[in-house]
Design a protein that fits this description.
Layout: H1 2-28, H2 32-47, E1 53-54, E2 57-58, H3 63-74, E3 78-80, H4 91-103, H5 111-122, H6 129-139, E4 147-150, H7 153-164
Antiparallel strand pairs: 1-2, 3-4
């Protein structure tokens, strides 16, 4: 009889734990509506993740990315044995990059340099392109493709046609 009592008590405890566990877990699970709402909120956050906008320009950018853009913008203006990548140095790209650098001036080590360069470029003065290219090239550990001079107007036009024409 004692054994039967022990079995009933153990089974009763197991049943109580199972019922209690079921309600505990059920309480922690979200309803389908709550899951849908949470998924929607996550998607919304992901769409705007990292977006800090200023004048409709996303200004969240690492300094190394700014350096890459500057470097590739100089390729339209410099003579170098190797040129890897190119970004057109048009007014819109210059203005966008200037906005980004100004928004991050306190975070970038060389922000004053970038701003000075971009302000000259905004005025159409690319006479500093060789020194800008080589400064950034050196920051990025360049070993091949040091700029040695400025392209002629005809060479700039040809470079633009080869790299930026649709």
């Amino acid at each position: 009889m004692k054994t039967f009592k022990h079995v009933v008590i153990v089974l009763g405890l197991i049943a109580a734990l199972a019922v209690g566990g079921y309600y505990y877990i059920k309480q922690d699970l979200a309803s389908p509506d709550e899951l849908a709402q949470t998924a929607e909120e996550i998607n919304e956050r992901e769409q705007h993740k990292g977006e800090v906008r200023e004048n409709d320009v996303e200004v969240s950018m690492e300094e190394s990315e700014v350096q890459t853009y500057l470097h590739q913008m100089t390729h339209q203006h410099v003579i170098a044995s190797e040129k890897w990548g190119s970004v057109e140095s048009n007014p819109q790209n210059i203005e966008n990059l200037l906005t980004i650098v100004q928004a991050n001036r306190n975070e970038y080590e060389h922000s004053a340099y970038y701003i000075g360069v971009l302000e000259q470029w905004r005025e159409g003065n690319f006479s500093n392109a060789v020194s800008v290219h080589n400064f950034v090239w050196k920051l990025q550990g360049g070993t091949v493709g040091k700029a040695t001079g400025l392209l002629s107007e005809e060479e700039k036009k040809q470079f633009a046609e080869e790299n930026f024409s649709d």
